Amino acid sequence: MKRRDFLKGAAIVPAAVAMARWPAMAETIGARRSRIAAVVYDERYADCRIFAETLAREGAMAVATGGDAARLWYGALREQSALRDGNVAGMTTDADLVVSRGCSRELNMRMAYEGSHDCRMLDHLKHCLRGSGIEREVYAALLRADAPWAESIAKALMRVPASDRAGRQGPFMVQATATTSPGAGNAGYLTSWLLSI
User: Fold this and answer.
1) Beta bridge partners of 131
2) I need a surface site. Which of 7, 47, 64, 80 has the fewest CB within 10 A?
3) Taking the CA atoms of the chain, what radius of gyration do you get in angstroms?
4) Are residues 61 and 25 in the same domain?
5) Buried b (16+ CB within 10 A) or exposed e, 82-121
6) Which domain covers residue 70, as residue numbers?
7) Do β-strands 125-131 and 174-180 pair in parallel, antiparallel, or remain unpaired?
8) Domain check: are 21 and 87 in the same one?
9) Taking the CA of residue 113 as centre, how many other CA atoms within 13 Å lie in the half-sphere pointing to its CB?
């Protein structure tokens, strides 16, 4: 046997073993995707409803604030998060974000992503995204503009692997800014966020 033939044959074996493991590896990668158990939204605004509907189609429990985010965190939302052990996403006013951040600390949740969406006195919508990695996926989704901006953000949050959502500690490290057209029923200033366990 020539050396060249031997090396060609030896290279085929690891490739064949890797190909045999790809289905199992893909299943493992899929299992690592953390699901969003609940989505909090302000039902007064069309963009918030679009965000919640997108996540609800993927199995998240949609919970409208009804003007009282604290009531949600001490009621149905607390029970839902504890039972399903999942993350909570939201698109709300800034006041509801502040309440959600404070109440979620009691469940040992932390802010993994935060976005502000501002079109006050502007003819465009300015998105400021902060996180320690997740905001890159959201930023890319906003640039694609193949769906309404609120739907794009929801889909981006669903694509982020569990390790990126919950595995990083410390303060937000990155900020990105994007500009899009405002939605039909925009509130002027909304926030999107993801709390992880």
Assistant:
1) 113, 174
2) 7
3) 21
4) no
5) eeeebbbbbbbbeebbebbbebbeeeebbbbbbbbbbbee
6) 35-196
7) antiparallel
8) no
9) 30
How many whole angstroms separate alpha carbon 32 and alpha carbon 159? 11
Express each pLDDT in 121-178 by its tens digit: 777 888 899 987 888 888 888 888 688 899 999 999 998 765 544 444 444 555 667 6
The token pair that represents 108 in the structure block: 């040992």
Q: E-assigned strands of the chain? A: 36-41, 61-64, 87-92, 110-118, 125-131, 174-180, 189-196
Residue with tokens 């590896």: 25
122: Cα within 13 Å, side-chain hemisphere: 17
Instruction: Say if residue 28 is in the same domain as residue 107.
Output: no
Predicted pLDDT at 123? 76
Indicate the pLDDT class of residue 79, thresholds 50, 70 and 90.
confident
Convert the pLDDT of each residue in 81-96 to its tens digit: 555 667 899 999 999 9
Distance separating alpha carbons of residues 194 and 110, to the nearest angstrom: 8
Whether 187 contacts 47, CB under 8 Å: yes
Question: Which residues have C-beta within 8 Å of that of residue 136, sequence separation ≥ 6?
Answer: 174, 176
